[in-house]
Here is the input.
Amino acid sequence: MLIQAIWWGAIFLEALLLIRGLRAKLLSRFPVFYSYVLFVFCEDLLRFWIHRWRPDIYPQTYWITVFLGLMMGSVLVFEIYLIGLSAYPGTARMARNVLLFVFVVIFAKALVNASYGAVWWPAKTTLELERNLRIVQAFAVISLITLFLVYAIPFGRNLKGILFGYGFFIAVSVIQLTLVSYFGNKIQLLWSYAQPVSYLFVLGIWVRALWAYQPTPGTIPAAQLENDYKALIAATNRRFHEARASLGRVVRP
Amino acid sequence: MIGVSLFLAVAVLLFLLLFFVGRGAESTGELISRPDDQIRHGYQDTLYSPELARRIFSPEDRKFISSTGSPQLLRIYGEERRGVALHWVRQTSNEIRTVMREHALTARQSENLEVTGEAKLFFQYIELRSICGLLAIFVRLLSPHVLCDLAAYASKLSYQIGRAQQDLANAAQLATFRSPGAP
Here is the structure.
């Protein structure tokens, strides 16, 4: 009964999110995000219908929709990168390099596993495969957030909400899939409630953040002298050397 | 079990970063609204006073207070100096953070951002902040003069080792000049 209520609650919030997106003209600003929400909305309705009328094909439908959602989620991370860094071409280049590095490392790990005679991706079950793919997403989001924080990229309420909600969803999924694949059915019951509730929380964050359009805060234009990137690097290096010298004086007897 | 811990650590790291995202927007906004000059020149006060740093951490004042022979005065001095030293460390750490923040705020708009240059600066930043953290721990747990004392001790030790090596070398040289049968 509770699960049914959570299910309907999620469908209601997804519908509300789509309606608000349409009203606030946010669909064209975040097309991938709203496509993702529309997909999840249709997926929920489809699963609900199959669960009720064709329970025999529910497991197959569940896993197919989960992996489709996972793929769309990866495109969503790319949209966050594109929109968040559109005004910062240099930082965007940096993000591309960092993301490329993350994927190369993960790909290299998969290659090493394959060379040792293991399977291409070491997952014994569908659950483990989903967890591994969520881990890849988690690394991509971690790299992106780190860059956003280091370069103090202003988000704006809308994008921050999308990033926060999806990041939270990935983190909860990683914990859930890790614990379930380790402990098995012992905690399955707990997670059958915890996961939908956390998803409701994510939808709540999205509804609140995307209720109306809010422009991204502007940035101060850099001074002419510091537009010269080499000069900026040299100036920061010099200031770090001064700090180092100042700290060095502490141990001078 | 190691795999499980690693996966959970990734999730915890993500939660931590999301917490900073949730909290960080206001501070970023504040920083952006601050006048450029205030950001640019705020850091100079502490870093440009070498005499202050040397004086706070050198044991000169402690020697002077010790010479009065008053344990109460020495205790008060210890507490006061620890507070001043911690303030200096915190201030220096904040200034290093401001330098990095200011760099990031300007660099993010550059089209020529270099990955290697930025990575080097970031590691320097982490190193300096770690030194400040360690320094604060030393000052809090031991005393502001402990590093100077340690450095002085190390210097004395190295001098003694140098002397010993020299003596050993001289002795070895003397031994080679003497004939095997000589008393």
